[in-house]
Design goal:
The complex is a heterodimer of chains A (268) and B (282). The two termini of chain A are 17 Å apart. In chain A, the strands form 2 sheets. Chain A has a 6-stranded mixed sheet with strand order 6-7-8-3-9-10, sandwiched between helices. A 4-stranded antiparallel sheet of chain A has the order 2-1-4-5, covered by helices on one side. Chain A has a domain of 146 residues: P-loop containing nucleotide triphosphate hydrolases (Rossmann fold, 3-Layer(aba) Sandwich), CATH 3.40.50.300. With 268 residues, chain A is of the alpha/beta class. Chain A is 32% helix and 24% strand. Chain B contains 11 helices and no strands. Chains A and B meet through strand 6, helix 2 and helix 3 of A and helix 7, helix 8 and helix 11 of B. The complex binds adenosine-5'-diphosphate (ADP) and magnesium ion. Magnesium ion binds next to helix 1 of chain A.
Chain lengths: 268, 282
Amino acid sequence: MNAMSNANARSGAHTQQQGDIVIKGEGVGKTFGNGSVVALEGADFEIKRGEFVSLVGPSGCGKSTLLRMVAGLIERSSGKLAVHGDTVKGPRSDVGLMFQRATLLEWRTALDNVLLPTELSRKLTSADYDHAEELLAMVGLQDFTFTFPSQLSGGMQQRVALARLLKTGADILLLDEPFGALDEFTREHLNLELMRIVADVGATTLFVTHNIGEAIFLADKVMVMTPRPGRLARIVDVPFERPRTAELQLTPEFNALVAEVRAVLGDH
Amino acid sequence: MKYPVIYRLGRFIPHMVLLALVLVFWEVAVARSWVNAFMVPRPTAVFDSFIRLYVTEQTIYRHFAITMTEAVFGFAIGASVGISLAVASAVNETFRRYVSPYAIVLNVTPGLALTPIIIAWFGFGIGSKIALAAVISFFPIFVNTLSGLTNSDPDRNELFRSLGANASQRFWKLQVPSALPITFAGLKIGMTTALIGAVVAEFAQATEGVGVLMQRFSFQLNMASSVAVLLTMSIMGVTLYYAMELLDDRLIFWRKDSGMARVGRRRSARVRALKAGSVVKA
Ligand SMILES: Nc1ncnc2c1ncn2[C@@H]1O[C@H](COP(=O)(O)OP(=O)(O)O)[C@@H](O)[C@H]1O
Ligand SMILES: [Mg+2]
């Protein structure tokens, strides 16, 4: 079904990566309503350690479905799916998730929201408080440690959610249109920070978006999906050096890649 | 304490003026016999009755205390049972299936129609008043708590699931705080209905309480005193309601900036102390 997926001896920008595969899908499919709705037709893909992979496509093409299967939140209907070599059977602690909505608990301070993942797995130590504060500083919220979510802007709330995601200690980060509800300026700014942060922590990232430029700009590899039925149409390598700056998006090479992805999507 | 006292008083003045105008008009209307002075007492007559009840004869206090006790105890029982059943129903699907039909039947049955039966069961004393107050305050508390506990945000449920939370963690850290605002809305309604239950049970059969007092005065066609007792009931209702409101504001602090500032400060001090403590130990 998808011959492209294995044909990538990547010249990745993440030089430190060993090239071992952390997420592997073979014919991963999902149907809803006893097979009446095909959300995703069998998808083949491999994601390597430290890679940043974008998942792009129009809404309804099965991006969230794929992400939620990787997260172990929904069962797949067909195919094989493995994370770190283990078949996915349910949520796991080395996979973290972030949504379009910040889903912060409004009765908790920013700090306590960041501490939630740890609190759910074991007793907190004072080192956890230090770590949470470092993470808040990393997302630029060092002055808002004891502020409550309703007192923060949408962008700041997503920063807290990002810090919370990092506090899980997961080395695989799944982000489902994390900045999709924010204005364009905030979104661009947060995208740049996200790139810096995931490179810092060396996480493997699966990033869902419906913005082609954003998908390419952030990623080492773009998985292009098409709707009706949801299908992984093509996997496109992104060769640009890191660190990247916003100016990259003005280059002809970048725009050629945008056109290539657009062409895949345009067939539908 | 955001606004200066003068400013807040200033906003109060138009209300006072309007109330004064209505009272004056009312007084004049009765004095000029536009309405029957016998059926509609003059404000000044009501005021006189008030003074007699509260100051000169001081008869009201005993009745006031009795009815308040009935309402508060009835409410406490209704709230305990309502919240317990709601929690059990939220936690256990089977339990909910078996309990909710009865809760719904109880809801559509006019609770006050139970008065004669409850008096037959619990007697003429304070027990039957507490029981009726409990029965009719139960339902709003049960329904609100249950819907609060079961309707937590799906995205947040998913978050907890992805973080590997167990049922008890999800209950205490997600469902309970999410349910608090709507539970409190139910408690406020329940508080008011408990007072209705107590008074109606007193109307039916009692020797003490503001309901009895009210009935006695109206049988004597002492309308001024009846209205004074009615106002007393309003005072009771407002007192109970604001007691709940106060608790509500304390507990659900995240709805107000002042509450968040207060809790944020406290949390900040706690975290600093915790870290200082661990440094000493280390
Ligand atoms: N729980 C569900 N039940 C039925 N259909 C669903 C469910 N979740 C998603 N779908 C369907 O699957 C398809 C893909 O959805 P989704 O993965 O959310 O798309 P995307 O995230 O790309 O917008 C859509 O047609 C959607 O209607
Ligand atoms: Mg989606």
